[in-house]
Amino acid sequence: MKYVALVYYQESIINAMSEQEWHDLNQECVAGVEKLTERGNFLTGLPLESVETATTVRVRDDDVLVTDGPFAETKEQLAGFYLLEARDLNEAIQLASRIPPARFGSIEVRPARELPPKS
Q1: What is the pLDDT of residues 47-95, one digit of tens each?
Q2: What is the C-alpha separation between 80 and 10, in angstroms, rounded?
Q3: Counting C-beta atoms within 10 Å of the first and last residue's C-beta, which end of the chain has fewer, N or C?
């Protein structure tokens, strides 16, 4: 079954890291993805740019509304995602617990929903 692991952390914590700490965290993430890939658990994933680069799009009554910034103000910002293959939720949670930024924020794990085939 496919699970999405959404990575959240406070950008202020990351911004306070030294260049070396940031580099080390990224290298730890790369190594983690390599292990997940070897085990057949990593399908895809990407880190996201800072929340400052976000744009929110809404459509109301056929009007497209565009707002700079994220949809909601929160303590933690969405920093990226992993699409994982796991037997069940327990395995997905175990895999998510190994994602390095979990030490600074949280990882939200959700089953991916398959869309029905086109009729």
Answers
A1: 999 888 989 899 999 999 998 876 666 778 899 999 999 999 999 999 9
A2: 13
A3: C
3-state secondary structure labels for all residues of 57-107:
EEEECCEEEEEECCCCCCCCEEEEEEEEECCCHHHHHHHHCCCHHHHCEEE
78 CB-near residues (< 8 Å, 6+ apart):
6, 7, 8, 48, 51, 70
Asked whether the predicted pLDDT for residue 17 surpasses 70, the reply is: yes
CA distance 119 to 117: 6
Contact of 5 with 108, CB cutoff 8 Å: yes
What strand order describes the sheet that includes 2-9?
Answer: 42-47, 77-85, 2-9, 105-111
| pTM of structure | 0.88
Percentage of the residues of the chain whose pLDDT score is greater than 90: 80
